[in-house]
Amino acid sequence: MANETVFKRYAGNPIITAKAVPRANSIHNSAVTIFGDGYAGIFRVDEINFSFTLHVGFSKDAIHWDINPEVIQMESSDPDIVVNKQSYDPRITKLDDTYYITWCNADAHGPQIGLAVTKDFKTFKQMENPLPTANRNCVIFPRKINGEYAIYHRPSDRGHTPFGDIFYATSPDLTYWGKHRFVMGPTSGWQSTKIGPGPAPIETPEGWLLIYHGVWTSCNGYLYYAGGALLDLEKPWKVLYRTQDYLLAPTEIYERVGDVPNVVFPSSAIVEGERLRLYYGSADTCVSMAEANVPDIIDFIKTHSF
Ligand code: BMA
Questions:
Q1: Structural domain contains residue 1
Q2: pLDDT by residue (tens digit) across 225-248?
Q3: Within a domain: residue 7?
Q4: Domain at 237, CATH number
Q5: pLDDT tens digits, residue range 174-217?
């Protein structure tokens, strides 16, 4: 293993491959969460006709997953909300007794963020699209901030987005979003092209822990890395610390080789006690896991900050 920081990769990586769903070309950039006495997830399945679809899955140990071969059918009181164009890169947040799912629809007049809620992972109610196009990443905070729902999001463009800053916004009702505040943008090295929020922010005594992706453009195209930041608990647009060194880089064969090579794309985390399991898309082909203790991640971010 090369270049591990505080994260240790699961020895059985990748944990999910295209074999999990009959029509899958690849399964990657997916979201998982604690659910009941086990775990549930929303998986990005790129099918053999190259439809990008969302599928629900369940697991007893967060390693072995049963993924439904059928595409999730969202319910909505207004069919105009449901875009259903190439749905990808889901995220999950639990807030009170409800799970909030966000994802990106490709090419709905530019990429657009979708939002749905579920309590049982059987029925999914799609809400108003929270943001105008173009925007590719959106994660909901696991508690309200100053009485309002809060998100980190990443405005974008219609193409391959050679830029990208993280913004913060709030809503009183999940429909109307505003008070957009700049949080952080690309900087040097592995995060010099664009960045975007990964798993939903994790509350710690030292601030919100945000694991994010950073992209570097080499002469051979994009490479994706995972980094970390700590942000003010009540003013989450204020960055307290941000890693100069990456937390995870594409070094293993399943991260180096695939449909899009050299990709580590962090998209969800399961935190139980101090143990954090990070789930990440590998080379746009499969899902992998790496784990670390939350205090060690915080210490690494604080001691490897700009
Ligand atoms: C995400 C998605 C993917 C892309 C990936 C790298 O933002 O747009 O389709 O290839 O980045 O995993």
A1: no
A2: 999 999 999 999 999 999 999 999
A3: no
A4: 2.115.10.20
A5: 999 999 999 999 999 999 999 999 999 999 999 999 999 999 99
Q: What are the E-state strand segments in 119-238?
A: 125-126, 135-140, 149-155, 166-171, 178-184, 194-197, 202-204, 207-218, 221-231
pLDDT attached to residue 106:
87
C-alpha 33 – ligand 1 centre gap (Å): 21
CB-ligand 1 contact for 252 (6 Å cutoff):
no
Domain span at 122: 12-303
Question: Ligand 1 pocket: which of 87, 160, 260 to mutate (most atoms <8 Å of CB)?
Answer: 260
pLDDT for 44 equals 98
**Tens digits of per-residue pLDDT, 146-168?**
999 999 999 999 888 899 999 99
pTM greater than 0.85 (yes/no): yes
How much distance in Å is there from the Cα of 136 to the middle of ligand 1? 9
Pairing of strands 87-95, 98-105: antiparallel
Number of domains in the chain: 1
Residue 139 lies in a domain: yes
Query: Is 89 close to ligand 1, i.e. is its CB under 6 Å away?
Result: yes
Alpha helix positions (H), the chain: 253-256, 294-303
Decide whether any atom of ligand 1 lies within 6 Å of the 281 Cβ: yes
Q: Measured in angstroms, how far is the CA atom of residue 82 from the centroid of ligand 1? A: 22
- Of the candidates 16, 36, 35, the one whose C-alpha atom is nearest the C-alpha of residue 93 is 35
Residue 138 is assigned to a structural domain of this protein: yes
